[in-house]
Specification:
CATH topology of the largest domain: Zincin-like
Radius of gyration: 25 Å
CATH architecture of the largest domain: 2-Layer Sandwich
Strand order of the largest sheet: 1-3-2
Structural class: mainly alpha
CATH class of the largest domain: Alpha Beta
Number of strands: 3
Number of helices: 10
Distance between the termini: 80 Å
Order of helices and strands: HEEEHHHHHHHHH
Low-confidence stretches: none
């Protein structure tokens, strides 16, 4: 594929709000296959990395990756922070890849390897077992909480001094059990879902993960929904203001006492 063909392919996946240039460097690089320059809106592809043997599929993967950086920059008025690979970026990138795969523009190489597919089944079994253990831990902690209440002991004290685990970890395991999360997602995804208090949003996020969406894509979509709610924005601002007021009030009291002591 030449440069014009690659650019046309990228634009067919998603139109760009700002124009960009795609350039073949004519070089090989041991460090990177390509990079994006937000200042000049240039996608640079080290095309010699894909000539021996010829690999247009991997070249296109690199181009989509750098195009995701461009689209990310477009959403931020043409600028990117020093940390370019954020959850927002990965959500954009994975969305482009899914579109390219569905249109058979890009081949999903993972699906073409029988050996890798067999290994994936084994790895997913470990994820399920890991998630099941977290869920079972939550069940046992609820039982311990009830027994503590029966003998007149503080459950928090039991967590701190008997089990010697962080309270946050105990609360997380109990939420995972309470929300009846699917253990096949693995403990990391279950931890993320347990942090979503809204039941319908949590169920939607769980369904998206089970449906094959990447964690970054689901996190980004969930965060957007929350951030778009005016009430949530106001509550966050109120919390910030309250913290500021409390801090200033404390300092004012300290200054007053110092003045009185002079």
């Amino acid at each position: 594929m030449n440069q014009d063909q690659v650019k046309a392919t990228l634009l067919s996946l998603e139109d760009s709000p700002l124009d960009f240039t795609l350039i073949y460097s004519g070089k090989a690089s041991k460090k990177v296959n390509g990079f994006y320059k937000p200042e000049t809106r240039e996608i640079i592809i080290h095309n010699r990395n894909f000539t021996n043997p010829p690999n247009d599929n991997l070249l296109l993967y690199t181009a989509i990756h750098e195009y995701a950086h461009h689209l990310h920059a477009c959403s931020r008025n043409g600028k990117l922070s020093s940390r370019a690979h954020t959850a927002e970026f990965w959500a954009i990138f994975h969305g482009l890849l899914e579109r390219a795969e569905s249109r058979e523009i890009y081949k999903n190489v993972f699906a073409l390897s029988p050996e890798l597919n067999e290994l994936t089944v084994v790895i997913r079994r470990y994820l399920f077992e890991n998630g099941s253990i977290m869920k079972e831990l939550g069940t046992r902690l609820f039982q311990a909480q009830e027994l503590c209440a029966n003998i007149g002991g503080r459950f928090e004290d039991y967590i701190d001094r008997v089990l010697r685990i962080p309270r946050q970890a105990a609360t997380l395991a109990m939420k995972i059990q309470q929300f009846n999360l699917n253990p096949s997602l693995g403990s990391d995804n279950m931890r993320f879902l347990a942090g979503i208090s809204n039941e319908s949003e949590r169920e939607a996020a769980e369904s998206a993960l089970l449906g094959g969406k990447s964690p970054d894509t689901v996190r980004n979509e969930t965060r957007k929904k929350v951030d778009e709610e005016p009430k949530v924005l106001l509550e966050k601002e109120r919390a910030r203001l309250e913290r500021t007021i409390a801090s200033l009030s404390k300092r004012l009291s300290e200054v007053q006492k110092e003045l009185e002591g002079l």
